[in-house]
Amino acid sequence: MNRPRRTALALLAALLSGAPCAFAQALATKHYLWEVSSITNRVYLYGTVHAGMASWYPLPSAVEDAFEGSHVLAVEADVTDAQAMEKSRAAALYTPPANLTTQIPPGDYARFRRLLPRYGIPEEQIVRVKPFMAVSTLVFSEWAMLGYLPQYGVDIYLIDKAKQENKKIVELEGADEQIKLMDSLSNDETLALFRGTVESLETGLAREQVTDLVKAWQAGDPDGVLAVARSYNDKVEGAAQFEERFIWSRHDAMVAKIADMLDRSKDRCFIAVGALHLAGPRGLVELLRKKGYVVKQL
After folding, report:
1. pTM of the entire structure?
2. The pLDDT of residue 79 is above 90
3. Structural domains in the chain (count)
4. How far out from the chain centre does Cα 236 lie?
């Protein structure tokens, strides 16, 4: 698949996987990486970056070693599966004559439209995109202005590496489940998230979040990552509801699949999910610890 196409597909997957951040510097004493052990097996949990820089690779040695020692790579969705990602992309578009101008209140759309020149996005390219995807595209454009690009996301790096090394790749969810998430937002939730995200871009809060997330990640600090998310939620309309739906509500199903890998499989698995999925008392790390598994940050 060519690079521009991969960029678009990576962006779509990134929008469904929690807030992006940067990876640990060499001086960090901890990485955003955990070893989880059962009586019969162990797996690795790695908080991924869905937009990044080419200079990040290879990843820190602790991460590369854990990956090399694993037989299977598990991801939320395979962002290199062109057919599945095309299906997701299609689900994010309106069917004409519907478009943003017919679905979003005029005042909110005008504020959104004023942001487009900042990112060099032609209005005709984005007016058919549904609200969630439209504002998320602007957010990722803000990340790109700081040098973080979807085509250099860690998910893509790991999937490509797994394919090169003939490792098995499994999906914790896949495109169909992520389409259901997008479709699950009510009209009121969608409008609230649209307005709140536009305001975060107007005020510079979205850019501030990038900086704070980078610092927390570099410190190997999941509590810091969670604190940044909480601060953002307190200031952005619709963000808390979005986080509940798109992060925490997905964890019961993920934990069940990870537990199956630990208890019923002999294959060592490297599990790569968005960084926020591993943070806090409702994150995968603590949920697996509460189920009795031995969890250690590396």
Report:
1. 0.87
2. no
3. 1
4. 18
